[in-house]
Records
---
Amino acid sequence: MEYIKSTIEDLRKSLDNKEITGEELFNKAKTLANDSQNEINAFVTIMDSYMPKGKTKTILTDIPYSLKDNFSTTGILTTASSNILKNYVPVYDATVYKKLKDAGAILVGKTVLDELAMGGTGTTGHTGIVRNPWDKSRLIGGSSAGSCASVASGIVPFSIGSDTGDSVRKPASFGGVVGFKPTYGRISRYGLFAFASSLDHVAMLTRCVKDAAIVTNILKGYDPLDMTSLKDDGLDYTKDLDKSIKGKKFFYIKEACSYDKKSDMLSKTLSQFDDLIKKIEKLGATVDEISIDKDLLNAIYPSYMVISCAEATSNNSNLTGIPFASRIDGNTYEEIMFNTRTEGFSELIKRRFVIGSYVLQKENQEKLFLNACRVRRLIVDKMHELFKDYDALIMPASGGIAPKFGEASDVLSDEYLILENHMAIGNFGGFPSITIPYGFVDSMPIGVNITGNIFKDNEVLNIAKQIEDILDFKGQVAGDKNV
Amino acid sequence: MIEREKIESYAEKLMFRMKPEELDTLEKEFDIILKQMKLIENIKDIEKVNPMTFPFITYEAELRSDEEESDSLTVDEVLKNSKHVVKDQIKVPKVVE
Amino acid sequence: MYKVVIGLEVHCEVLTNTKNFSNAKNSYTNIPNINVMPVDLGLPGILPVVNKEACKKALKTAMALNCQTPDEIIFDRKNYYYPDLPKGYQITQVTKPFGRNGHLTFLVNGEEKTVDIHQLHLEEDTAALEHYTNYSLIDYNRSGIPLMEIVTEPCIYSADEAVAFLENLRNVFLYCEVSEAKSDKGQMRCDVNISLMKDTDTKLGTKVEMKNINAFNSVKAAIEYEIKRQSELLDKGEKIVQETRRIDEDGKTYSMREKVDAVDYKYFVEPNLAPVKITDEFKEKVRSEIPELEYSRIKRYLKLGINLEDASTIARDKYISDYFDELLNYTKNISIATNYLTIVILGSLNKLNISIKELFITPKMLGEVVNLVDKNEVSNQLAKNIIYEAMEKNIEPLEIIKSKNIKQISDEGELINIIKKIISESPDQVKEYLSGKEMVANFLVGKVMKETNKQANPATSLKLIKEELERMR
């Protein structure tokens, strides 16, 4: 068995057949993690010893995993990759972490994110940039950068991240792995450091669809500590994965996939998408091209910025140096807050907070914040309307491969593609949404995104698995394939 | 176009300072986001739409029954992440109202 | 002369086992930071979960104050930075408060007064700041304790009205059992907004705000001081500054800060608290738990012919009022019943320093005694002694009466013999009477009482004595 290529199921077998012990698995993962740090820099913290805390034996017992460093872990440094929390050691467990601990999964390390999960490049964490294991000169995307890199490079078979705009599903595309965000509330957010509460989702990165189903099975369910969490649907998400999707109806958004002038990269990506559609139709499913009001589609990105920045500026008001976070002293409490926050936040974060605060101000709220919330409603209503006739939306997760460092930044720019931002729709409406690899461009992986109606997590996973099966990327790790 | 002083005062209200070059970038970003938001006003009947706060509402959420939790934090846990503790409380410079 | 216009913002801690958004204990303690959950500390990743009991009690109070109530429960965030606010925002209600457009009617010096309630909402208390010479300490026990805020319209025109409103509002809390409302523990505190205007003026004068006053008499003092201060300024033709003032022990107020431009709290709906429907069933259940309130009881007592002072005394405390209402099930003589409750019972409660719930004498027992007095079977004097004795020995009054076979002797045949005897024994007094000192008759009544150990009917005895003496002329 080659560890780095192993799925959860493979490892389960080896463990059950006593070919390897949990401790040996942990040590493999730990060594890989440490060795990768110089080149990839996926981790803020790497655990030093194997500490099984499982309550009962489950499919995840002794399976190594990594956890984004914005989940609260008692006694384990949790920084959200921000200087303001560089010494913060939580005193309570996130529900997700507790469930994984109880299930016997073994934490290998806490992974780097874009500071406070605000960003999509993986370059803004306080411990430095995260590199793409497929090409070290490229970024892996964010904000769940380290989580994605740790799975894409085979250090762990799965990682828990968070997805507010596309923070798991976009990196998954750049890293050639699976990124799944279940329905809003399917997994408790308790203990996930809030970025934008109404958009935040616990999400995961794996190397195959079935592993995503396995992990979601363990994590889903109602949590009395999260009023927005959903009652368990009682389904085993691994059961229906192999059902045929014959007769299913999919659609993609015309305006997002057709441009007058296309870059070479965009045309390559889109032509692969066309090939994929043909393959899907061979499975007996139909894929329609649907047209949506372009003004509405163009409004997705600014509306996402406005809503997420507004919630973020409030959610992070607790970071003042009183009674936690690295306080920088002053003669008055105001000075303490000023010094702590001025030193503690990077420029990008400050810019986002100012925008968020601006749109919430009395005189701006109607035209900015509330209009953004109105756009959100229009888009979500449109999706619900389409989901009456269609089982899923299928789209390229990105207009291309992972950019080189310097090519992309988190500074707002005027030229953006609808194709780069459509996945926020999944967060607007809380729709279950998954990205899986569907090809390579210039030897770099690209991903396709599948989004279904709320509560249809089981169906979305089934569709994704059926598509995964007709492709050849299941379980791939960086460098594994030379295309 | 928002004038510089305003932006600075917004930062101040958020309890942090920004460097001049940071404000430059922010000014540009404001122009972009405000221009894009302006376009939203063109969407037909946008003002009639009911703003959306929650991704969806099930009305299944339950209020918490008023029962005390045994494992509330210990004093040490409450104070664990502060270096400024006196008499089991968090110390700050005198707060003058 | 200026017209005074006052608006009040009353904060009241809600009586629950746990906090509003965490299940940490809600209780008053001097040991710092022992009732704290991650939510109350605003730690990264925490999520609030709404306390059902707190909502129920806020709704109950809103209904008791005749407010319109919402169809669902949602909360909003009020964003600002202060060392006692760990999250950097307070969870409160703006979009759909538990109560709107209510009113409370009560009496001020015998005059009926109605104060309009602008809004009642549920929110969370902040941590407690303790100030020392050169630093302050933060205790998070109070952080997140459920707090009701009641905001009145500016429709209060004097210190007396303000205090009367606060007292009646507190009794609404106590009657509904939604709060202990102890001002000394800061469980009930209020902000006073006051402005003066010429009688001729149409628009309100400059508003001055006085924050966090606990004791009601401090409210009175503060208002009176402000009226004086502002009147003098206006007389001198000076402007009133819009500001927030603090009140000191001596009742004087001091400027805290001038209101520059009002803070923008950037309110928005709290996204972590999924909306919960308030069903009509739930509303009805809550409504059914609201008892008859103070003012309605006072009016009922007045109709029974009870004077205002007694009516108010009885209705001031729900449990005393309940006791009295039950007492009326056992006796028809309201005046004696009222007299015995307000004098004998309330007097003893003070003396023994116990609550009426702890009292040995049940309404039934008291009713029985009242009826004996009513039927002239036991003298008033004796009846009261019996009640005191009953309380002392925890023996039912009727038992005592039986054991001492006490009854009032009103039978003239029986009395006349005793009287004849007394007269024959008191020749001097007889002389005095016949010589015109008719007062002596009362002295003889005393002797009769003594002879019958207080069982003789004094009125009947006096009548008979006079008849006897007259016959001797």
---
Amino acid sequence: MQHYSGFGLIKHSLSHHENWQRAWRNPTPKKQYDVIVIGGGGHGLATAYYLAKEFGVTNVAVVEKGYLGGGNTGRNTTIVRSNYLWDEAAHLYEHAMGLWEGLSQDLNYNVMFSQRGVLNLGHTLQDMRDIHRRVNANRLNGIDSEALDAKQVQEIVPHMDCSANTRYPVLGASWQPRAGVARHDAVAWGYARGADAHGVDIFQQTEVTDLIIEDGTCVGVRTNRYGDIRAERVGSVTAGNSSVIAAMGGFELPLESHPLQALVSEPVKPILDTVVMSNHVHGYISQSDKGDLVIGAGIDGYNGYGQRGSFPTIEHTLQAILELFPIFSRVRMNRQWGGIVDTCPDACPIISETPIKNLYFNCGWGTGGFKATPGSGHVFAASLAKGDMHPLAKPFSMFRFHTGALVDEHGAAGVAH
Amino acid sequence: MSQKNRLQSGGRINRDQPMSFVYNGKNLQGFEGDTLASALLANGIDVVGRSFKYSRPRGIMAAGAEEPNAIMQLGSTEATQVPNVRATQQELFDGLVSGAVNGWPSVDTDLMSYVGKVGGKIMPPGFYYKTFMFPQNMWETYEKFIRKAAGLGRTSYETDPDLYDKVNQHCDVLVVGAGPAGLAAALTAARSGARVILADEQSEFGGSLLSSKETLDGAPADAWVSSTVDELGANKDVVLLPRSTVNGYHDHNFLTIHERCTDHIADKAPTGKARQRLHRVRAKWVVLATGAHERPLVFGNNDVPGCMVANAVSTYINRYGVVPGNELVLMTTNDGGYQAAFDWHEAGRKVIAIVDTRQSPKGACVAKAMDLGINVITGSAVIDVAGAKRVTGVSVAPISADGDMVTGSVTKLGADTVASSGGWSPVIHLAGHCGSRPVWNEEILGFLAGPTVEKRLTAGAANGEYTTAGAIAQGIEAAKTAIDALGKSAVDVVVPATEAIAQYPAMTLFHVPHVKRTALAPKQFVDYQNDVTAAGIELSCREGFESIEHVKRYTAMGFGTDQGKLGNINGMAITAKALGKTIPETGTTMFRPNYTPVTFGAIVGRDRGELFDPERFTAMHSWHVANGAKFEDVGQWKRPWYFPKAGETMQQSLDRECLATRESVGILDASTLGKIDIQGKDAREFLGRVYTNAWAKLAVGRCRYGLMCGEDGMVFDDGVTACLGDNHFIMTTTTGGAARVYEWLELYHQTEWPELEVYFNTVTDHWATMTISGPNSRKLIAELTDYDVSAENFGYMDWREMTVAGVPARVFRISFTGEMSFEINVQANFGLHVWEKLFEAGEKYNLTPYGTETMHILRAEKGFIIAGQDTDGSVHPYDLGMGWAVSQQKPFSFIGKRGMAREDCVRENRKQLVGLKTTDPNVVLPEGAQGVFDPKAPIPMPMVGHVTSSYWSANLGHSIAMGLVKGGLDRMGEKVYYPLADGRVIEAEICSPVFLDPAGERQNV
Amino acid sequence: MFHIYCPHCCEHREEEEFHVKGQAHIARPVDPEALSDEEWGNYLYFRKNPRGLHHELWVHNAGCRKFFNVTRDTVTYEIKEVYKVGEQPSVVSPADKV
């Protein structure tokens, strides 16, 4: 793999940047792989990367129906945090956080992980109870987390309206200093480049049309472009499309795929240094390094694979943003879009064995997928490498919906973004 | 400075109405009818911005929504600052204050350009990804410097003084764009009796005809425009919306229109007027007549101020009477481009040359140019531009017929303006918003709107039809299609006669070759706003970013505020060529709303502040306010939180309220609790199915507490339901859960048990509810009613109808405090009256109003739960120690029964709700504190549950708390430790949550 | 924003008046106690979540408060039909017989 550095840029500038190598190959498929990963988003590519790099499984194929990072990886609001309530979720997301720190160096690809801190605002007494509950749990789980009052919040976000005059005044917040944002596309590309360098074959524009199942065991995938590709184990990491893949295996998942919308303003001069989230008024906002205000909206209630949602959701989100930041009233919205989020009833993911032997699923991340990318990929890779679920993944079996052992992040945190 | 580029006559400006404006601190003059861009050009302003990455000087390129460079800061006061206004779309008004958005110390002399010049070489696409990685943890430091360059304009630091409105509209046909096709479509639809909305982003209707020299039926085009607009304006079923951009096309023909009502008058709207309006339109049919954008060609240094799109040159001359230079070189791949040279020539300025990329073009345009004595250089292209802040000359070279390479020597020509035309791209953005993919059309060398399930039609240039007559005909045809589908009969509209000019075939050319290969050639810009060059696109393809989406994301092409209106097709063509594919194989990126940016304020409208979410008040709210209540937001309700007296701390108020209630009598406004009226012969059966406990034997006149669970067995609401008659009940729910519970009941009735005869109605707002509680409560109510309220006649958990304070009331002997209580329900309109009467009579008992906080304390002293505070969707009734409220004997498997029997719900060591007594009775556990059994365990510490409710109990003289503890119900007397953020570890003993009167003797009297 | 025909009000109304309640035609088991945890879990949580034709339950909560079914394409968002609770859809994908 060609090493990236500032010196490299200077060197390549002398040859007019004509000698940069491809970030990844366009290989031709082998007949048999140890592992096939369905889905070339952040989680799938991270899975392939860690399989090859950490677990020595290099005979791996990633099969992506579109382009790399073209699903939710490239459509989210890039927030990274790990201050989840329940132990199981907190440990998983904190595992991811540990990998985020140092990911650019590990991948030799700057994913621009910027630990500018995330505030989760509280607007009611119950919000504040929930915040204290979560902050205390985080602290005892070894996750940096503080409960702030309104005055402390105002110091961190000087341009937010923290007065008592709003419809739902800001009473306080939880604050995770190590949280922040990262460059979403770079995560997919960095993992793809790293996986490729370790020998992983990546196939784009290659859609899995069926699973090859023999005697209740998954032995490969059927594709629209390369026909059958066989493997010892198959891992599906297809987010919003997971139910479609599951249907190929003849089973259902406890998932619904919903539109989740986001929008950006035109770029404006820096005015917001941190990420501000409010579940109560329902909006979240940060400012990118280009100056766009990056704003998230709520989930649309209906199932939808259209990568778009309904306009009232955008209206409500901007109402919330102007409640928090009245000075943004004359700023203009440039662009809106939607992702397809696969949501579980307990707002936690599925990292799991399935009714089909040697077929594994990693899905159901809902609105929490991007921040988990490295951790999700790592534990899923470990599980696929050994054919045995990683300890951090075990609580997230799809079969918890049979026993009732849910990890209910809805419970105290409302909607978890 | 005089308006040196202004023509003496011509154009649609009003020379009798001069207007003063400020640009970068300079006072300039323009005329009514100008845009800010045309006024700047008239004044000879060349540099209007600096590019994002290289800080290169940039000038005005275009005349409309596609302009990438002329992005301005607007606003004469701090509060009215507007960032990123496109000068080509801002009408000039007297007193307008504008400035460039970047450049230091000024946009003319930007020191960053030196960094751009030197550093630009090491800033290819994706350079961020390749550097700033070492040492680790330095990224945030690098980022601080990178962020300094972020953004175009700036936000205001003050609150917006303006109002914004929203209006919902319905129509038969929404016509988007009022050019020839749109006007024809609107006219046809209107004459056919349809309800029509015609919206156009510009100040005047007419579109391309406003800057055209064509004749229609022998008269100037604007005569047809004004007669058409007049007819439409006279039709009461037509809504005309100028200055209104249809910015988003959503599912089921829902479109949003962003109307700028006053932005052409001043930067603050006149008093009482809305600055902008958002129209939310549901259209039965939509006709997109959105026109086309001319594509500039991609050539060396094609961003030097003075480089423009050919059609923009014509527009400035014909519409605004401004010639944006003295000496023009026009490069074109098609006949259409010639018009700019003709207009320039006619304006009396010099056309240095027309550089036609076609090998030997023939036909009327070429002939006309020759006749005018213009130097036409064929089979050639402008491959490079000289100049920094203004074009000073061009390099022209012969190119091959396929446009792939330079085939001869370079000729240099002097010029200050370079116009280029690479053909047209239909404006099909709206057609793509609902997921329809554009389809490449080889004939017009552009994308057309793809197939759709929406009732949407396309006409005119938006449909690839570039002649005026053709566009009008298509507009008529589209309207007829819609009218037919609407079941009306279409009235014919005659297409006016135009002069048809035979067109010589255009050449397919996007990227002009240079003598050097792209990587070595001068910068050839594709996307101006994000400094994306042809070399950058080729590099990204070389590096494996082959999908057009990857190219876009890697180079940032199309991510600007112009969203690639000028550059995207060129970028796709360059990508296709680099990959050896066709353009359709390469594909397009998705179009997303908005077509052009929309003010946040306009999207929000009036739904701000108190209208952000409606505030709900009880009937006694004014009394609470008058008596100094502090309020708590519960759902949408404003509930009194506590009633401080002068000089009291909150704790002192709570102590006083708690003691007064237990010692004499307190009063709570409980009106916000949800109330659902349930009737029907199967009402009782229904209750038995949705509550966990038994309802079969509840007698008329009696009340019962019930727990409601989901199918998963987890508690989701609770409350008391009273039997009003054998087939009539009134259910109370939590304040926040009322709507959810109501929908839940309807869901089960309508979808699962429609055979049950039962009816529901929400009556929360119909009743005012006040609870008097305490040992003197009976004496108090007895003073206001003739009814016998003795324990013998009106016992605990009874309810009675009676007259209280002269009004009919339902009174319930239910208690959430553990004291003798009377919950008085009266019609909401009588609420305040009864409340005041209670205070008149209650003065001698020291009747004390209390709010939600004291309510919480009093109920916690009794161990009563609050659903949503002590429960969170992960606890079932047995976890709460409330198995007594679950009847396993009921014949019907009630909702929650099966769920709470699942493997995980019946396991050992679940978190269970218990009381917590701190070892130091003066210490109040913080709510939300997490408990551990071993406070010395290392991090991560095994946690056993959190404190859900915790208070100082003035009645008991010590703190009380409830919390979830793993296996807590079997651990009575054991210790739990709560390590806090401040380093303290609070020790508590697990106990019964009932701290006061376990036998219930105080309430059951 | 969807434009939904309410079969009880007999007119098209805006999506804002409605709530969607998920997959339609999930009947509550008659004898829940006879079901295994797996069967009960399947009833509670497991869904078809199809890409394409989908039968879903809506309620006109800001209108007549009635529940009804909608057959909708989850990719194009086109509503194919609306029908009352207790009725069966007429538009059914071959792979998805209700």
